[in-house]
User: Fold these one by one.
Assistant:
Number 1:
Amino acid sequence: MMKKSKLFLAQLSLTLVVCAFLIVPVIQSVMAGLTVNYLIGLKSGITFVWFVRVWDLYRDTIFRSIMIGLACLGCTLILGVPAAYTMVKKQNRLTRLFEELLVTPLAVPGLATALALIISYGGLTGFRRSWLFILVGHVIFTLPFMVRSVIAVMSSVNLNQFEEGAASLGAGFWNRFFHIAIPNVMPGILAGSLMVFTLSIGEFNLTWMLHTPTTKTLPVGLADSYASMRLEIGSAYTIVFFLMIIPLLVAMQWVAKPKKIGVIAEKTETIQNVSRGTEMRKMESSPIYETVEEQRRAVSGTSLHLENCAKTFADGTQALKPFNLEVGAGETVVILGPSGCGKTTMLRIIAGLESPDPQGKIFFGDVEVTNVSIEKRNVGMVFQSYALFPNMNVAENIAYGLKVHGISGENKERRVSEMLEMMKITDLRNRRIDQLSGGQKQRVALARAIAVRPRLLLMDEPLTALDAKLRDALRVEIDSLLRSLGITAIYVTHDQAEAMALGDRIVVMEIARVAQIGTPREIYFNPQNRFVADFIGTINHIKCKVFEDQLTFPAGRIPLKSAPHIHARENEDVEIFFRPEHAEVVEAGQGHFKATVAASFFMGDHTRLILDWTGPDYLTIEAKGNQSFRKGQKIEIRLDPTALLTLKV
Amino acid sequence: MRRRVKLYLLFMIAPALAVFGAFFLLPLARLAIASAAGPLRFKIYLLSLTNPRYFTTLLNTIVLSVAVTLATLIISGFSGVFLTRNDFRGKSFIVSMLTFPLAFPGVVVGFMIILLVGRQGLIGDVTQSLIGEKAVLAYSLVGLFLGYLYFSIPRVIITIMAAAEKIDPNLEEAARSLGASPFLVIKDVLIPALVPGLISSGAICFATSMGAFGTAFTLATDIDVLPIVIYTEFTLLANISGAAALSIVLGFITWIALSLARTAAGTTVAAAG
């Protein structure tokens, strides 16, 4: 809350004085141009005679200015927009140098530029005497504005993702430029165009030097009229200038205003029970299968084979150590790992957005695709940010890949409708992308990717951006979808619950290397090393020494014969691992060791206990039943010896 | 595959490079050469410091530009911050009025000044009725100063308003929660946050004033600024090398000022007018 203090009034007065300083002469010129006699003022009456004179005297300069302005606009569009695109896509020394140089026409006074042009090209009299000479000066002066405006918008829009999305659907370079890049930088192009045209109309410094008596422009005419004509004529001419400028300024302000977008979200997205056979949708004219297995066998997916693939980036960082991967046709493999482990890099190598280091090879089925670009690999890709094209609506997004592949007309429409139905978004057909909720965008992205019947479906953390409940629901849907399509899918995530739910097999990744590949059960019950054991679920560990056929540790001991799968010699140091659910709270005297409750969390079907004990780390165990625990409570723990693990580190 | 993309990209930037090189870089190089083509060769640059006429002109222009920059920063600073932080009826109207002259070329600005303080100017009439003497300021240094102020204020106000809007209001609220008075808030929170914007817009203002031609041309004052001298040297005295050398000196000074602005602001800026 601001009080109308003295400070406020002082500032207001100052601002009003400045306002008056700027606007009063404008009002004066308007009045002067409209009254019969400036010296007498309004009392002498309103007239348009001055405008008539101005029109007679300066009509051709006005037209010439407009012509030069439009020509300048055309030139800057043709020269500047592609150049801006190149400068954003390819950032190397040349483009950066050009970007720096592009600022110089703004730093060098117009006079100097004009002088330079005259000295260099003044000799070509035809050129020198035509309006093209002025055009050249204007283009040089306005080009930086157009380029800057387009670059600004291009950098802020996530153009790269959209182009990769388009590439994964098969679109080539020019298709991507005209259908994806240009429509999405239109605000920058518009703003730049308005700026260029306005600057060209009002340009004086350059033009005064470059003009000849036959190539005068509007500002040149203004200078003439101020010097040699009556004040009224100069004023009327100035009014004409104002009238031309005002709509341009208003348009520029309107373009600059950010537009509000509204998300039309659905109420709740509930689990759709697609897995029931009766509701399964058919793809093309496929026969009905007796079992899911039979359907799975008649797959439309391809097998994938990566051999000795590694990835080292230009600056020397090794993002992926050499690895092999086999994926069977129709299988869903999940790449699971913490942030920065290289899982997205692995996916991009499979997609064709990155190439593996020289000795790596990639095969789709029997065909080697190592050097095939993504446009030709026919992979369906779902990006983390969905990468839906903002310049198209839902149906157009889904249809895009089909268009690129030459499918049109009825076939295209039928396929789009099929996809909309399959993903249950038929009523979103004509929605704009910025009106969709996260879950809706997810479905559209999936529909778009599978519309072109890819051999391989690649998904990069598609559910990460959604809230927990939605994620659970969509996870089930995606699982059913993948099984019913029989497509080969590679799914990247850092969420282990997702991995366990969706994957036929899981590739667990540590930083830059593969830690273990196996089914969810194998990974969970037989982790091959400590990282995997710790990453999936929780794992506890106890350092023991074998003494008298017992695994002994400070707090207690476990007879070796109750854990026959552990092979250890006398006096050997063994580290045993166990999961929280393989320990139970027991009565005194019945357990393997004692511990104190440090914290307890009631989770509904069990209580998670953090225990303090003689070992170096806290233990995490699950207590079943509805016993409640206090902090500091002393309890006794019994482990299930058959579930103990010994692991490599 | 990827080589083809590189080729396409080259094809897309080549026309702009060609036009820019042919019609700007090459001519500028020729300008530099032309400056040394006269009898004095490169000593002509020294002339800009030793020749009394050139030197006074250069000095006048610099002093004028500095004065305009300081005045503009102070005035626009006050008004810009005031407008950003206060909402009242008619505010958007005032803002539009303050930014409308943004698109005026120098000639129109000169004309505005003539209407205000010229021989038949408004101020002249006012002073005539008040003290019996007509104040005609347009054709003196004051008029030039007012003219430069006229085209500088809208530019700088817009920049300052944009910078002031970006300031996190939480900073101010934190200061107030710690007991700072409005004056201290302005001194310790507002002004330090605005300093980059002030530096960059100040540098632009300086550069624009140095290179301004249209305004001085229209006002046709006795006092010469560098762009006018360049113009007369070239068109009336056919002193190509002299005009070229002075242009390069002028361009060099503006370029330094704008580089300063860019490092302070981190974005590209322009001088025009």
Number 2:
Amino acid sequence: MTPKMVTVTNFSRLYGPRGWAILGTCAVVAFVVIPIFNLAVPASSPFHVSAFWVTLIGKIMCFAIVALALDLVWGYAGILSLGHGLFFALGGYGMGMYLMRQIGRQGQYQSDLPDFMVFLDWKTFPWQWWNTDQFWWAILLATAIPGLLAFVFGYFAFRSRVKGVYFSIITQALTFAAMLLFFRNNTGFGGNNGFTDFKTILGFNITSPETRMSLFCITAFFLVATLLLGRWIVTSKFGRVLTAIRDAEPRVMFCGYNTVHYKLAIFTFSAVLCGIAGALYVPQVGIINPSEMSPANSIEIAIWVAVGGRGTLAGAILGAGLVNGAKSFFTVAFPEYWLFALGAIFIAVTLFMPRGVLGLLARR
Amino acid sequence: MKANDLPDLAHQRSGEHGVVLYLDGISVSFDGFKALNNLSLAIDAGELRCVIGPNGAGKTTMMDVITGKTRPDEGKAVFGQSTDLTRLSEAEIAHAGIGRKFQKPTIFEPLTVFENLELAMKADKTVRATLFSRLSMENQDRIATTLAVIGLKDSSDRVAGLLSHGQKQWLEIGMLLMQEPKLLLLDEPVAGMSDHETERTAELFLSLAGTHSLVVVEHDMAFIETIARKVTVLHEGSVIAEGPMEQVKNDPRVIEVYLGR
């Protein structure tokens, strides 16, 4: 067998025939059906998929990438991070600043500086936003900063053998501290208004149906790629070591594995995925502000994964879809009851579906 | 330098075996309680040593010190010719050639028996290597051989969590063998095994001795008597007797603190 053939057979082994069929169907819907029904079917037709739905599904797909990322560290390696919202928001901020600079002089104050800087009386660009008018640099920031932060934070936490609930609490503190930092007007991160009023991305009008649909398809592509890459990771020997760490870390160490390296690798990779998701999210929803870093947001991510089913990857996507679908419904129909509903969902899942919705389906 | 130098060492000290593990004056205390008190012990290459003693005598703490889980307050722990165990991490000690079986069988329950052995197998255990690892025919054969040795050939694809208690003990011993260690530390290896399984474990240990060094901690005196050549008795963190089984059994102090009860 040539090396290439080996790769292909490996790849097809990631899922069974049924798994590939489901994935293929979803891909056809995302890449063919929705674009046609959004762009080619006229708005007057009952079959038209409106911009509202494109944005909503696009947004949920970004969340699904985050849920996948958390499932890799929580479901497989047993590390419950309650700070993944931070990595997501950092990715969003990287992309957000690029979009701010794309506005140029078309802002309200017609200045070279983004509106919020004029408004807050900044004269020059803070150092951290150097070169952010370059798209490639913004993408680099959006992925490397979450990765670097996760690496440094993880290095100290894992080396000191911080585990379980202690690790979860520290990650909550981390995202909370970052939120406070970004909320301040004098740190140059945009304060509580964050970044908004975006006009163009790479020169394309950000609100045009074609740009929206392109962002939608790119997000769908990243979601599928993340799923397959994640599946490849968890079915590799590396993935089995992660599972082993989750269940019996001392045994893994006495087998000769340096578990710190393993945890650090998957935690950093997971943070980079969140950064990508954040960078895809911001141009679609049109705003990024520090509330994305609130501790509650990160807890919600864990709920998505728990609802869908930990340690399954597909469950993370399902959970993100179900909870956010319910959220969209509730916040329109009974806005004041959403948090109660979320709490009820979480309690119900913990009590009656410890393996999540997917676990329930698999049992049948 | 690694423990590979053992044959040389043995050669140098003509007439006596090379020492594979040497503990000298080890003391460990937890909140003022002395778990190990000036413990000294030497294990020869190829030896099968049994360690007995009442609960709380420090048997498990001694294994923790050897495997790097606990750092001693005082004393030296040397593996092979010059590997200082008190400076290495658990993973480094495993790589140096020390394998450990826990008191409670510790296996990877959601993985299959085969996968458990695969993870334990001596190999490049860095992140990159495991990410791109592919199982060679040779390694599949190695796993098959171990499966036969531990009598789990028919359970290869079973999830390890579904095994009986005795089988789990065997699987953990198999995982140890896959690591190809020079020194095996076995904490209560036959606990929960049937008589037949215990008998086969004794045979296995006896066949390993010579090519491997083994330290067996057990409460099952019948088992100890089957395999024991030299026995060390621990009490309150120190060695109180050491020698052939017959001699130790008749030692008045040993009878008082352990056997007589």
